Structure formats: structure tokens, C-alpha cells
Amino acid sequence: MSLEEVLRFREKKALLQEKMIRENPGAVIVSLGMNIPGPVKSGPMIYAAFREGLERLEELSGKKKGMRTVKVLMEEAAGYAAVCLTKEQDPYSVKRAAIRLEESHPLGRLWDIDVFQDSPEAVSRETVGAERRTCLLCGRDAKECARSRRHDIRKLQDKVTEIIAGWQTGNRT
After folding, report:
1. Fewer CB within 10 Å: N-end or C-end of the chain?
2. DSSP line for 1-61
3. How far apart are CA 64 and CA 34, in angstroms?
């Protein structure tokens, strides 16, 4: 997977989010993506983890309360994403619920759940009083480790595989 393909995928996802925001003023938009380091962004294991995230997100934000009204899926070699329009009115409560899901599910560290309302800028974890995400390997700030390329990509990929395989076999990592 080339960097150009990954960047195109991200841009396509951002444009979809912006379109939903623009066409649905006041609505809360929830976007699910995957935090997968390295060039391999798709495949059966990653897809299974993505689908699990989508199912948990739908339980959290939609099916029980009838909030999900529109869902657009992106399934490409460059990754997987879902952008959902909800009937929920409070983006902060949705973001707090998304963070609880990311922090409580064995695959949650691999999910990237963003929440938007009337702006292409996502509600941040800090805005709702949550800590920044930590690195898969060392526990430091994930963005700092990614920016500095602190860790060998193979070790990060091995950790992702370990997390997904542990979930698939029922061993909660």
C-alpha cells in the first residue's frame, strides 16, 4: 500500500464527513476508522476487527435508540471506514460513549471513533476530559510516538496482529 493511496483514502473519508455535516446541520456524525500502523491497512483480520467495531458502535449509538439513520461504508485496500448520521443531539455524550467503547473493548485501541457536529473538526478526547490515546507498545502519547517513528513498524504490526488474534480466540489482550 502506497502512502499516496492511504492519503487518498483519508481525503475521501474527510470529504464524505464534510458532505454529511454540510447536508445535515445540527446532526451528530460518527465516523469509525482503524488505527493500523504500517502499509497494510486491509485484510481478513483487520476487516473482522472493523466489522466488530461497527457492530459495537451501532449498538452504542443507534440500534437501541433508533439514532442511526444513514451509514456509508468505505471498504478499500487502503482501509475501512464508516460514517454514520445520527439523530443524537449532544456530540459530547456521544464522544464520551465512544471513548468508553474504545477503552473497554479488546479491539478498542485499534478503532478510531470520531464525532462531529457542524464542523469538520472532530470533538476531541480532551474536550470531554479524557486522556490522549497511548502508544500500542510503550504507553506514551500515541501521536508523539507516531510522529517521531519511535518504534519499529514490524513490532507495531505484530502488536496489532496480537490484539486481533487475542480477540478472535477470546483471550482479551
Report:
1. C
2. --HHHHHHHHHHHHHHHHHHHHHSTT-EEEEEEE---SS---SHHHHHHHHHHHHHHHIII
3. 24
Q: Give yes or no for a contact between 67 and 91, defined as CB atoms under 8 angstroms apart.
A: no
Q: How far apart are CA 148 and CA 142, in angstroms?
A: 10
d(CA 147, CA 130): 21
Could you give the angle at which helices 44-58 and 91-104 cross, rounded to 10 degrees? 130
Per-residue pLDDT tens over the stretch 97-113: 999 999 999 999 999 99
CATH number of 3-131: 2.20.25, 1.10.10, 3.80.10, 3.30.70? 3.30.70
Which one-letter amino acid corresponds to residue 59? E
Asked whether 62 and 101 are in contact (CB, 8 A), the reply is: no
Which cell is 35 given? Answer: 488505527
Q: What sign has the CA pseudo-torsion 117, 118, 122, 127? A: negative
Contacts of 170 (CB under 8 A, 6+ apart): none
| Span 124-137, pLDDT tens digits | 999 999 999 999 99
